[in-house]
Amino acid sequence: MSNVLINERQAAPRGLGATFVLAVGTFAVGTDAYVVAGFLPAMARSLHVSESAAGQSATVFAIVYAVLAPVLATVAARVPRRALLVGALLVLAVANLGSALSPGYGWLMASRVLAAFGAAAFTPNAGAVAAALVAPAQRARALAVVVGGLTVATALGVPLGNLADRLLDWRAALAVVALLCLVCAAGVYAVMPALPGNPRVPLRDRLAALRRPGVVAVLPLTVFGLAASYGLYAYAVPLLHALGAGAASEMWMLFLYGAGAVAGNLMAGAAADRYGPVRVLAVGYAALAVTLAVFAWAVEARWLALAGPLMVVWGASTWSHTPAQQLRLISAAPQETAVVVGLNASALYLGIALGTALGGLLLPVGASVALAASAGLAVLSLAYLALTRRTG
Q1: Residue 121 is inside which H or E element, if any?
Q2: 183-222 pLDDT per residue, tens
Q3: Which one, of 151, 162, 370, lies nearest residue 250 by Cα?
Q4: Which of 57, 93, 211, 392 would suit a FRET pair with 273, their CA atoms being 20 to 30 Å apart?
Q5: Which helix (H) or strand (E) holds 200?
Q6: pTM
Q7: Residue 245 lies in a domain
Q8: Could you tell me the residue range of the domain that residue 246 belongs to?
């Protein structure tokens, strides 16, 4: 990956400012991925399927993303970075328009597969470019800025999608997302510095990073952590209903989750640079386990007063993981930054796929059961972190 290292040395003087344009793109990607959570019940009714079945659109998206991320990194390695990122956003725009026009459940699933193509091409490359644009001491903060686009999407995209569904309908909300992707593509094209592609690395060589003990030890935590933290977010509205929240408060509860996500991500990036990623991850998983366990109890007790604080801490603890995990992987394989960031993105979406699939199975049994299972996964993540704390 010699070109990546050359790009890092050339781009490091730019500082963090140049990474903000990438956050604009990840905001579009995040809105595409998460907006469905804001209108899941309405979409399920319109397509004549259960909420659990509608939520599996997130599972399909995540599985396809996890498989495609390393494949696309290989196929598109030589494509100039700006052209690749803009093209990925254009694919997302077409996919969202297809989702908005879906005549049935099968068409919706097909459009989510196409959306996964665009997301798998954009997000890992945005993270790798961000790491190349700054000095090594600022990498965690740069990664936090890029991931911040995803967290802002949860803060604004999901509640605004919920609002758009109530004012218009879910199809109009997805059409707005398609327009957003087009606008962000124009912004990335106009502002992002031109960077060449990288040498084409065979998929076999990319996956060879998995032979590094540090990489192999760190990646499973991404899977466990996202299964625990994000798996149920696609079903946030049904969970809030189980807690006793009405339609009027849904948007504000989703906004509180997103506000916590933004704060948690930014604080985690700075804290990981200062205190190290393992401490940040330990605090995040402990907070997540407690939050989901209390949420499960609150659902049984119908204690709506806890909804706001729980959503804030859930968002903050969920989105504190990614910058720290990426920093551990880059430290474990510093010569293969783009490869390990891409592998982490695959692991991230594999965790989301497992979590949403588990949530879809357990939600019909009971919201408190699904929440308790996710709390158990958070405890498992904390235990795995303790076993691998010296890695990366």
Answers
A1: helix 105-132
A2: 888 887 887 777 776 666 666 766 676 777 778 888 999 9
A3: 162
A4: 211
A5: none
A6: 0.75
A7: yes
A8: 2-387
